[in-house]
Amino acid sequence: MINLLRQRQTGHIIKLLLYIILGGGMAALPVVIGSMYLHSGMGHVYGVSCVYADSGGGPRGDGSGPVGAEDGRREAKAGDKELEECLARAAALAAGYDYDAAIALLSDSAYAESAKAQAAVSEYRAVKSTLVRADPGAITHIFFHTLIMDPSKAFDGDAWEKKYWQVMVTGEEFQKILQSLYERGFVLVQMHDIAYETTAEDGSVCFKEGDIMLPPGKKALVMSQDDVCYYEYMEGDGFASRIVIGEDGRPACEMRLDDGSIAVGSYDLVPILEDFIDEHPDFSYRGARAVLTFTGYNGILGYRTAPSYVDIGYVDIGFDYEQEREDAARVAECLKACGYELASHTWGHRNMGLMPLEDFIRDTDQWEEQVEPLIGPCDIIAFPFGSDIGDWRPYDTKNERFQYLYSKGFRYFCNVDSSQYYIQIGEKHMRQGRRNIDGIRMYYDLPESGLGNGHLSDLFDVGEIYDRSRPLPVR
Fold first, then answer.
1. Taking every pair of C-alpha atoms in the chain, what is the biggest distance, in angstroms?
2. Cα–Cα distance between 165 and 158 in angstroms, integer?
3. Contact status, residue 472 vs residue 184, Cβ threshold 8 Å
4. Among candidates 375, 228, 370, 373, which has minimal Cα distance to 306?
5. Using CA atoms in the order 443, 449, 451, 456, what is the torsion angle rounded to 10 degrees?
6. CB-based contacts of 301: which residues, under 8 Å, 6+ apart?
7. Overall average pLDDT of the 257-267 stretch
8. CA–CA separation, 163 vs 105, rounded Å?
9. Is 257 left (phi over 0), alpha (psi -120 to 50) or beta?
10. In this structure, are residues 34 and 92 in contact, taking their beta carbons and an 8 Å threshold?
11. Are 250 and 44 in contact (CB under 8 A)?
């Protein structure tokens, strides 16, 4: 069993500090301080306002007034601590490329006139002046399925082995992919960063391209994970069983161990990604994480939230349906607070382009009735099977399926496309192709496959990522 329980390590901070000493310079400082602050046990800090000594506008203890010398020293130390906390919060914002917020936080704080705050503001303004706008039409989107955490159980020769081999990657492969993406300059952004719905001056609603500003050499990237439901058929095959909120208030996963006990740790994409961003806060643009897509027929996030579990008598064996729904909703809120975007993968994992229109409407209604109440309003849909509801041309109002999804609040539509990037920003929606990262795609890129596709070469070297302990391919 791979042991990936979350551990808050500090060795990376020492390495980053050495980097500064040995020549990393001030440019690395926001990343270092931001990383240290994220590891301080204070949780997610993106966008947190500065808290300072008092409402009077500055730290007390300068020896004036009735304050005694000893009291003055104590209050000066308290003020110094709060200044460092304010600087750390600004550094965390800057580490996520939100230099405007970092500058505003320091400039509006009680410490605006301090030498340290002014030096930090000068540094952030200098870095901001070098930023380059990412081309909204040239942003790649990659997606994964549930990660295999114990390959010996997934690849054990049973009927599901072929599917797991084809469409999933292992936890170790995913960690290597993350490292490669980071080293190649990719930065996670949200779909809503690329384009967003706004109201024009004439009162009409339209879509507008976003301004993603990154340092030269950095590249915007969207990541998603499909079927974050932990289906019943996966039980015992080396996967996590559900997402929970850990003792530190952050998302983690439960996984059943060989002895029957339940461990909580980094057993799937979400907590592994959280660990990675802890180590590399500059991998996330303004707090962005991944898009998580759900079906509804088997519940979401590992909780059995579908009404069918009541209909088939689970309640009679002690199943608490309302508690399942309550717990799923709490986890969904935690994920959104951490920067994850939640999306539909249809209720029944259906081919939305080929199914009869009446079934299409019924499936969309089931999603709205059974899943949206748990996760909140949803405007992203990722079509299963790489399907789509139209051809290569932008959707228009003559498309009944587009009309119906639009009426239900969907504005972002994702198919599957092997191109580096495929984006259409229409008047009232955005459409983006997603590149599948899975066993079969990686195998076809391996030299020994004889195919030599190279579809993933811009992201990572498949030869270094691919776990060759995988069984021989079964096509």
1. 83
2. 12
3. no
4. 370
5. 30
6. 228, 229, 230, 242, 243, 294, 328, 331, 332
7. 95
8. 50
9. beta
10. yes
11. yes
What is the Cα–Cα distance from 188 to 191, expressed in whole angstroms? 10
CB 156 within 8 A of CB 426: no
Closest-CA residue to 384 (of 455, 305, 293, 308): 293
Q: Centre a 10 Å sphere on the Cβ of residue 47 and count the other Cβ atoms it contains.
A: 14
H or E element, residue 72: helix 69-95
Do 292 and 340 contact (CB within 8 A), yes or no? yes
**In DSSP terms, which residues pair with 435 in a beta bridge?**
142
C-alpha closest to that of 401 among 429, 370, 369: 429
| 228 pLDDT more than 50 | yes
* Cα 442–chain centre separation: 22
pLDDT, tens digit, 9 for 90 and up, residues 95-145 = 999 999 999 999 999 999 999 999 999 999 999 999 999 999 999 999 999
Residue 433 and residue 422 in contact, taking contact as beta carbons nearer than 8 Å: yes
Distance CA 50, CA 37 (A): 13
Note the residue count of the chain. 475
Ramachandran quadrant class, 346 (left: phi over 0; alpha: psi -120 to 50; beta: rest)? left
428 CB-contact burial (10 Å; exposed 0-12 / middle 13-18 / buried 19+): middle
Q: Would you state the structure tokens that stand for residue 315, as one six-digit string?
A: 């309640």
pLDDT at 238 (0 to 100) = 97
| Coil, strand or helix at 70 | helix
Which of 343, 265, 253, 337 lies closest to 302 in space, CA to CA? 253
pTM of the predicted structure, to 2 decimals: 0.85
Q: Does residue 360 contact residue 352 with C-beta atoms inside 8 Å?
A: yes
Closest CA to 413 of 291, 273, 265, 295: 291
Distance between CA 335 and CA 375 in Å, rounded? 10
- For residue 77, name the pLDDT band (cuts at 50, 70, 90): low
Residue 340's nearest CA partner among 231, 223, 202 is: 223
